């Protein structure tokens, strides 16, 4: 006989209680500390929700009617240590043994129309505190020490239905804290829940309100969304509600473009699939790109954002996006700085966007060892991520074309492995160091040493390891040519002949790819 909804909810409560059994001594003890002092204490929010979902929660969040100073006094009495860095918001932290807890005074704060920070106001009842929380599934509590389940807004039923609904009117909830609209998208990605239609409508109406929230808080929510098991539903919600136009406008802008592979109606859809395929290629905890990997996922969703600015309609109905990888790298840097990403992450993602087309053209077999060395050198520590991003960027329905691209990249990785065995490929350095350069040329430390080192580095990339003697001869010849070129009337610089760094390997000045720069040169509309 099938279970009724009431039976399902009863079973969920029992399962949650069983999962919390290991914490019961802690919950009972801490609850007794507060109730003995005449206060209420409840486990609240994520830990309760996750227990009902059968998940482990990394946090232990509590709420109380005690004011912050009283909470400090009680936690000092209970724990090994405590801290009050969040006191202005009513939050006090403490640690006892291996357990870390945070206790927050009942809150009822709101945002003013023109403020980026909430006006903190403390409340008096648990029910009012739960009402101000973002969603009903996070508005459930376990009163301590009695372990009484408190669910005034139907969070358990919504959890069973896998729906995100606000405890009160969504307009009021999102008005109190506009970041909750971003959280709706994040929870859709993390939990696989749908968002209540009334909440979606409010998000569309109030999307502009997100502008009062600091870039740092928006970035944190976006990171959590992208690191979720399935970011797609969350990103689609941001785009459909108009929030993405305020926080990541480059993403919805892709909907205007034509997908170069003719599989999707727009580059937006292509980018979402690239993200999904990149996630599928992430490694286990001991692999070179252990998932979830924020850098790879950001690069996947942003890799084509340079297309709107570079789109050109060609004669005959074709569409080109020449150098969109370069434009995309600049846009990526600009957007990530605006969202206050750290410098290293910004540089890594932008570099991957810039490099994501380097592979195209390899399949014709024209790459020299020099081109392979440069590919590895330019990618540097991002090489494993670049492998995965490049493979993910193939979304064609043409099975023969997909197989050809995969085979070509297999071949490239094999050549990289072979070169690694033959030479120190991951840290390509000239055959001569700075001291040897100064000794051979008889020059002091300075700009000329740097120029000579750069010449030898290019020589190393072109020809591999050539040894001290040959490198010395090449250096002396280069130095003589440089000095001759500085003499008035000397025509040496105009003499024909290929020098290091000239166009080779198919016409690319860096020797990186034989295909024309920009990859997909012409497309049929």
Automatic annotation (TrEMBL):
Q: Name one Pfam family in it.
A: PolyA_pol
User: What superkingdom heads the lineage?
Assistant: Bacteria
Name the needed cofactors.
Answer: Mg(2+)
Which SMART domains does the entry link to? HDc
For molecular function, the Gene Ontology terms on record are: poly(A) RNA polymerase activity
Key words of the record: Magnesium, Metal-binding, Nucleotide-binding, Nucleotidyltransferase, Transferase, tRNA processing
Q: Reply yes or no: does the keyword tRNA processing apply.
A: yes
The chain positions of domain HD/PDEase read 263-424
What EC number is given for this enzyme?
2.7.7.19
- Coiled-coil segments: none
Where is the region Disordered? Answer: 483-525
The organism named in the record is Kineosporia succinea
- Tagged with keyword Metal-binding: yes
Q: What CDD domains does the record tag this protein with?
A: HDc (cd00077), NT_ClassII-CCAase (cd05398)
Q: Where is the composition biased (Low complexity)?
A: 484-500
Name used for this protein in its record: Poly(A) polymerase
Tell me the InterPro entries matching this sequence. Bact_CCA-adding_enz_type3_sf, HD/PDEase_dom, HD_domain, HDIG_dom, NT_sf, PolA_pol_head_dom, PolyA_RNA-bd, tRNA_adenylyltransferase
Compositionally skewed regions (Basic and acidic residues) per UniProt:
501-511
